[in-house]
User: What shape does this take?
Amino acid sequence: MKKVINLTINGSPYEVEVEPNLTLNALLRDRLGLTGTKISCAEGECGVCTVLIDGKPMLSCSMLAVAANGTDIITIEGLAENGELHKIQKKFIELGAIQCGYCSPGMMLAVKALLDENPNPTRDDVKKAIGGNLCRCTGYVKIVDAALAAAKA
Amino acid sequence: MFRTLKPFEYLEPKSLEEATGALSKYGTEAKVYAAGVDLVPRMRRRVIQPKCIINIQNVEELDDVIAGNGDGVRIGTLASKRSIEISDIIKEKYFVLHEAIANIVSIQVKTQGTAVGNLCVATPASDVAPALYVLDAKLNVFGPSGQRLIPIDEFYLGVGKTVLEPNEIITEILLPAPAPNTGGAFKKLVRSAEDIAKVNAAASITMEKGVCKDVRIALGSVAPTVVRAKKAEEVLRGKKIDQKLIEKAAKVAADEVTPISDLRSTADYRKETSAVLVKRILAKAIERANG
Amino acid sequence: MTTEYKSVGNRIAQKDVVLKATGEGIYVPDVNLPGQLWGKVLHSPHAHANIKKIDKSKAEALPGVKCVITFDDTPKILYARSFRDQPLGPSKALQRSDEYILNDKCRYWGDAIAAVAAVDEETAEKAIGLIDVEYEVLPFVLDPRDAVKPGAPVIQDWCPNNIPVAGPCPPFIKKGDVKKGFEESDVVVEGTFFSMKQVICQLEPQSCVANVDTNGKITIYSPCQLAHPFRRELAKMFGVGSGMINVNSTAFVGGSFGCRLSCHNEPIAIMLSMVARKPVKLIYSKEEDFCNIDTRTPDYITAKLGLKKDGTLHALQVDTMAWASGYLSRAMLAGSITLVWGMGHYRCNNIDGSFKVVYTNTPLSGAMRGFGNPEVMWAVDQLLDEAAVKLGLDPVEVALKNAKKPGEASNMGGLPLESTYIDDCIKQGAEAIGWKEKHKKNKGGTATKKRGVGMSTMTHCSDGWPLLLAHSGAIIKFNEDGTINLICHPGSPGTHIWGSLSQVAAETIGIPVEDVHISGMQTDVTVFDLGSHASRSMFVTGNAVKIAAQKAKKELLDYAAKMMVEDPDDLEVDGREVYVKSNPPKRIPVREVAHEAIFGARGDGYTPAGVGCWNSTYSSPPTAAYFAEVEVDTETYEVKVLKFVTAMDCGKAINPMSVEGQCEGGIQNGLGAGLMENYVYNEKTGEPLSLNYTSYKMPGSLDMPDETQIIIIDKPDPKGPYGAKGVGEPALVGIAPAIGNAVYDAIGVRIYDQPITPEKIMKAIKEQKSK
Assistant: This one.
């Protein structure tokens, strides 16, 4: 039986009717057209589907959409504000931290969660903050560089 | 092979009574949902196919608070692993629990998932469980017949099995006050940093003038449930501690485990490194007890 | 590093990357066509079984299901998902077509045997569960050593000994008398090494969207890296002309690394679309990625090296046995090319070998980054290290001694090496890791932590000529605003190739790189490009882009000459202006020339444009040296890589930031193969146990070395565009053997079977002690 949920996504209010067995990831991608949030392992191991829920990094693939009722969600589409890229996005672009780009949305949001909590992280802090985000392309090196550069920017 | 979940009934009870009532109705065909981080992937893999999901996030008697409780501490059912990890009181008085969670690498899994949820999955490789064992944790459980207190080392029956009745819910984790000059440590061995443990171990030791007043040693991933290495503890309890005694205790601990070979590791490796882990965490725990 | 170019050589951020950063970038799983259905595939739950009967009636009756297809519905045309059953240039080694789109026999656990198209994904998945299949389960075989034994289960009827392909050492590699060479050697080392089934682990699941319209035109959004050969293969499979198929590669691709050289679920999606008469979207789950698309081809590499006491490599023999799946996919090529890499890298006067590719009931094996080179160097470079140890020589000196020089016969067909700076790689890399202070010295080691350093070197290729077709083309056209569209088809493997090719185009014409728009990457629009493989896109497509750019520039300047009343040879482009070389103040905007050429009033209008095609008939392979410093815990046997240095000779680095990124990513891939990635099976049922990121671990951020250093030699190749050579695959080749050699330096133990795990080290040390 469908349920009506209310949530805020990237600053905009949404009221949607969802089946209980719809995951948050499927709600974002397939129902609301927010395809910036990606899907990969779909079982909480790769971090690709990371979104910020009330500011905290969580796995949209491993969450029911109905359980997101009343939450405030940021997806990658919400990182830039008024067309101005977030400093994390700028540094990721500038420093070559994005190759195929598939891990990047989740990765940048994990970095945002870190910088919101710890504005002055060490290299080690960054590596730990993205420990749950897999990347096959970059070796994580420029991702860490970009996160540190964003912290200083 | 599935990307979607099968349909189910979904309930959002507002009270413990409502929640356990629903659980009574559905029995083993219902699953409790606190975060989804274990549940949803298992549903996707069709390992479990519940007819009803009961979301306990809005149950008024449940909370995510970590706070003093008499001389000890209570941890609410809905407390995320991450909130426990960074809690000042946990870091200060129950460091082994902080360290165990710090060894769980995925920030998302820790932020989303609850410690109680982790216990209920009852995997022998839980990182949280061995730490709670050495802290003498008790679980406060609510069911239709009322409240009961279950010591953590009586909670597990086997792989995926606990003593919880299908209509019971854990309402909090209780940790007693640590004795003065107590130190704890946790370590795990993995294939990659973000991995289920091949072997993990926790220790808590209370020292007085170089003598071990009390000690707890627990190992995970080396048997169907967490192993309290009681014989190893006996080697140390009441004795003056030196490196030789630590190594002896570590060897005894390795004899108390019955690991298997699986895709993560071999029985031989797990047995041998159980001793190494115990040796190293005892040394660390003693350092912290004295420091 | 200084650059004399405006665009080439700069660490420029790429335009397409901005879209990836905002979430606007569309990947194939994000593509939605109006009215589309969702596809889902039924996979075999047996490693080897005949299909006796399929009852799809219950599935068909489920509301929302539009069609259910099985072997009966497929065109009875065998194909090869590697496309190598049709000629691709000079290679005479055509592969036999050995699979249908859906087969009537299961030859590996995960084999696709039926498919469904339904109104939504949930319905499609439910329908899969309603297809009743009656199997006759057959004995299976997982290991090729068992598959070649008499009496082993026959996997493909036409191939009773399970060896579809075998061959001797390629004639351009074979040299001298290897038997005599070993007799004359002062030290001989040998061993059989195992290079594991490395799963690609690209993050984007294998996905496609197919549409067959009423005219019979097939459109397929696909991540396939070889779009034009793919189109030709589809034409064969579906009995239509190539012009009736459009392979659309405009979507970004979330990682390829070689698995997308082959097609995977695309033919199934196309079939579903044909039958259901609607677009069909098909996204694999991660489990399907682990058992139903190509992985690296596992290989038993038996190598034997004979060295003289001064370190000269005097005899070299490599014999390989590659594991194909129940279908060849790309294993044939992976298996055979290992000899070219392994025996074509060092200078040696006595070389021989052989290869064998064997059918097994394991999931698909094909190409992964390096394509046989990481596999064979895992063996050769560890044996070279062993020989150096036995001779009491420094491995760095041995590598330098046996490294080829420019002009010597290269690995690729014996063509002369156009350039090699491997000496620089070895020397600079050794210095950067601190080789002299650390080799055999346990520097920084403690009672329980031993340290060591190890190295490896390699030569790869910048394309497959003369073994394979090496042809790419590009089109450039000016827009009236003075910008250009660069229409080319290297695919989008996520390697920054779009940006790098844009830099080449910009540099050639003289305009800023921001004025280059990569467009139209679909086979309806682009001229032939073999595609992204063999690290060729920079070298070959780059040269094609350069030619197209030169032609488009000429057409622009011819028109500018008319407008300015000047000799076109006296004109040049400087940023956004055309100026007169002999009179620089006289200049007009590029924009004005382009607009006039297109919209002007003279009656002689045209679009300044150019088509460029280039064939590589050269051997300009990249070379590299790799250095690892490790620390081994002598109680837990865990290996930690403290520092890794890759010294890369990829010619002129068009974008050094991209080159570094490739090398850093390569370290992740190679570290994984060397230390933790492991594909395992349930030996009783043949079911793979490595089906997700939980069971199969690849390195995360905390597993990478504490320190990585990438040294780009940056010396140009005479044939590459602005001197560039390939880099994508070289980034990975020598990582694992360097780590293996470092472990040996630390604890005197050498592990022959990937990955090097603490369990294997513990076992090896105990065996050593008991001897």
Notes: Chain B touches chain A at residues 3-10, 12, 33, 35-37, 39-41, 44-45, 53, 55, 57, 105-109, 111-112, 193-194 (CB under 8 Å). Residues 9-55 of chain B form a domain with the Uridine Diphospho-n-acetylenolpyruvylglucosamine Reductase; domain 2 fold (CATH 3.30.43.10).
